[in-house]
Structure formats: C-alpha cells, structure tokens
Exodeoxyribonuclease III (Mucilaginibacter gynuensis), 258 residues
Amino acid sequence: MKIATYNVNGVNGRLPVLLRWLQETQPDVVCLQELKAPQEKFPEEAIRDAGYHAIWHGQKSWNGVAILSRFGEIQELRKGLPGDDEDTQSRYIEAFINGVVIGGLYLPNGNPAPGPKFDYKLQWFERLKLHAAGLLARDIPVVLTGDYNVMPTEQDVYKPERWVDDALFRPETREAFKTLVAQGWTDAIRKLYPTETIYTFWDYFRNAYGRNAGLRIDHFLLSPQLDKRLVAAGVDKQVRGWEKTSDHAPVWIELADE
C-alpha cells in the first residue's frame, strides 16, 4: 500500500502537474493540501478519470485538504479537527481506507511570530495532539500525514541559523511536534533515513530548488501498528522541477500487507 502526501499549492492551477504525477507514480492513497478551491470547484471528474475516488474539504482562496484513493469508495470519518467549533479553516480530513485510518492535515503556517497567527498555530497543534492521542488509544492502524509546517530539527532545514525566528522553526513549534511524536508515533522518513539530508519544500525565490536550499516540513507519522509494516519511503523531488509546479514535492511511504 503506497500512501503519498502532496501540498499542491492550488489544485486547479496545478492540475496538469498533479495528474502527470499520479499517472507516473500511481500511489494507492494521496493526501492533498492547499487546494485553494471552494467545495464546488474541486476537480472531481478529472481525478476520477485518473482512477481515484476523492473526498475533500474545500475553502475559497485558501487552505483545503483532500484524500484520493484507488481502493474504491472512501469511508469518510471526519472533516475538520475537533476542539474548536468556531474554526472555519479547512485543514483536516480523515478517512478509513483499506484497513487504515488516514488523517490528512495542513497545519497553520503561523507567521508572523509572535502574533495571533502563531497563537492559532500552537492552539491547532494542541487540538491535533488531543485528537492524535485519542486515535492511538483506539489501538488501530493510523497514518497522520500532510504539511505540518514544522522543521523538527536543524537537520531538516538548509542554513537553520536563518530560520530561528520563523514560526516553522521556533522552539515552541518544534517542542509541539516533539511532544506529538512522543505519544507513540513514528516519523517514517527519519526511521528509514535517520541521518540523510531530505527536503520536501523549496521556495520559489533565489533558485532554492537549484541550490537544494530546502526544508523538510511534510511528514508521515505512523501508529505502532504500522511502524513494523513500513518498508519504503521517499520524496519525488523531480516533481518540484516541473513546469508550473508546487513549491512542495510529493512525499510517500510504502506499507507491507498485514
């Protein structure tokens, strides 16, 4: 079972890139972030023609998350992260697919920090930790994946000294991620590649991709039931070099059958 996550940075504007990548790599399940499209504007027909069923949680101009699956109709579990009924931002979607609970998330950026946006990021993180702990308590296979907007360590960022005051790298942000993982989750990429330099995002400016001046901010967290089924993981870095592409590259894992 191959599961991927991809911040598409506009699902309609980048649709040719998304469809090409789906055709070339054929993941079984895909979590998308930053759809930047209202609910009625999601390109369901094109996705279905590519061989995928889809559920999505859209929002006009901003945010938006989706899950695609080649396993047929998707059993949706929830749209939105519990803990704040007044939160209207489309940042979380959850489904049961092929025996696995898959949570697709787009964690707030939080800049400028400090400030209200950073406060919202940390509050969202607290809600995520509560929900994640509840999922672990159910003793079922779970994947929490998406754009976390966190570089967990200095190893995950090009020239970390330049990012000290950024919301993606501030101590509070890294501590929140660390305490989430400490609940019992496995950082899939780091389990298989503990010392390698791996990035998933390269800015559009200053030839960041060409210089490999990147960040690792798209993550897979696996529950203990899936930790031992992890057999491969990687970043489709070449996609970042395509024409009119996202500033993120797709990230993927492969799980062995039970």
